[in-house]
Amino acid sequence: MQWEVVIGLEVHAQLLTRSKIFSGASTRFGAEPNTQACPVDLGLPGTLPVLNRQAVEHAIRFGLAIGAQVAPVSIFARKNYFYPDLPKGYQISQYEQPVVLGGTLDIAIPAEKAGDPPRIRTINLTRAHLEEDAGKSLHEDFAGMSGIDLNRAGTPLLEIVSEPELRSAAEAVAYARALHGLVTWLGICDGNMQEGSFRVDANVSVRPLGQKEFGTRAEIKNLNSFRFLERAIQFEVRRQIELIEDGGRVVQEARLYDPDADETRSMRTKEDADDYRYFPEPDLPPLVIDPAQIEAVRNDMPELPSTKRARYQGELALSQADALTLTSSLASAQFFEAALAALP
Ligand code: ADP
Ligand code: MG
After folding, report:
1. CB neighbours of 231 closer than 8 A, spacing ≥ 6?
2. How far is the CA of 310 from the centre of ligand 2 (A)?
3. What is the pTM (predicted TM-score) of this model?
4. Does the beta carbon of 252 sit less than 6 angstroms from any atom of ligand 1?
């Protein structure tokens, strides 16, 4: 039996802002635990969230860069669950009406044969929405106890969701790299994966080649390197195929990748949206973005990778693959242009 792999990625990009998405507390990384969590981040009674304008502008920037629709009205929603690092008992996110809808991203998948040009694909995005990060549980620092650091609580995130169009670990990595290149290019995320500024959840399923319906997916959470992303998917694909071929069934669940053992392990069975009891956030008005604000952000944008690419192909007659490689990060494009300018 031949199997086809189906992957959709959810990426959490931490937005570069000085203060948190709903409070004035600092987002600086590496401070002493719990020194950057104010009453709003702690969810104390009587506090109210106020939306960070910069976070909204970053979301608009992203939407424009991928050719998406920036929603004129989007709605914040409460996603209810209990966890020690979530003092309010809910996360403020967006659900039915996200700020960014649709859009596409061109990716370059390295050829298997050295020297061959990469394969180019255009991947559709589903949506991107604004939300707050949770705090952090520290399980290793205290014997027999867990510590809670709430400095990260309320840090602004853009969750970027792809359509289930990726067909291999290599394509998933190419997509994640392209997205990482774009958000850092736009200056909306520092892209520091070690510090958790860019984290990937990989939804993975398999189906017999030719079958139309998707198989059941498992979601591998919080991958913070491209190498782990690739290995986790490769392991997960093998696991699912072996499981099905042995007469078993894949269950919908969240899994964790353990790089030391190079395997994924079950974390928890996946909640359905119903379990979160989403409802519109009563403490925040709808987010209204008018055309003038979109234009202001557009006028303030750097030249986009897609624009540069078209220019390189048109003016310099470069191949699509070369143009894509040169614009995979702002640094490489700037290096290329400086080299070009230095030519006699
Ligand atoms: P949730 O938020 O519950 O994880 P979503 O519908 O937002 O669910 O989907 C999350 C991601 O899962 C998307 O990137 C989507 O493309 C991907 N996805 C959905 N179904 C499948 C599937 N059967 N196999 C692989 N990926 C999938
Ligand atoms: Mg998910």
Report:
1. 169, 257, 259, 262
2. 34
3. 0.96
4. no
